[in-house]
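Re: [ENG-882] Designed sequences occasionally contain unexpected residues at chain ends

Forwarding the minimal case from QA. Structure tokens:
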């Protein structure tokens, strides 16, 4: 998948991508078993979704004996970036600040998360001053 191509994945497809990003290449059976831990899904439904994802070039597959091993094509970072940008553009009128304020208002961050956010913001400020 080329960097500029837009990732158009449904919520169900994003669940499968998350499994593959977390666990690495998996068979349909492995993905189905992981999905079944928190969701009622039939094996054939998982198989069909993964076949469609392969056609959409979200997954690659490699024959492994009688089954296929599937791998996510887009990286987690690339998918997150595109999805966040779409949300910022479509819901927050292009304002990343509004997105961040909404996220922090809806989620009580831990002290560790706040420290990491502060460190990230300080780095961004440093980057701005050195690029001038």
């Amino acid at each position: 998948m080329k960097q500029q191509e837009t990732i158009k994945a449904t919520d169900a497809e994003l669940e499968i991508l998350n499994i593959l990003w977390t666990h690495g290449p998996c068979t349909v059976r492995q993905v189905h078993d992981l999905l079944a831990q928190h969701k009622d899904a039939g094996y054939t439904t998982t198989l069909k979704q993964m076949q469609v994802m392969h056609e959409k070039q979200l997954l690659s597959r490699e024959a492994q004996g009688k089954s296929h091993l599937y791998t996510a094509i887009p990286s987690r970072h690339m998918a997150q970036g595109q999805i966040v940008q779409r949300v910022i553009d479509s819901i927050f009128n292009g304002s990343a600040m509004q997105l961040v304020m909404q996220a922090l208002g809806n989620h009580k961050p831990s002290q560790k998360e706040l420290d990491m956010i502060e460190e990230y913001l300080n780095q961004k400020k440093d980057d701005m001053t050195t690029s001038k």
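QA comment: On inspection the terminal residues look reasonable. The two ends are 34 Å apart (CA to CA). Proposing we downgrade this to a documentation issue.
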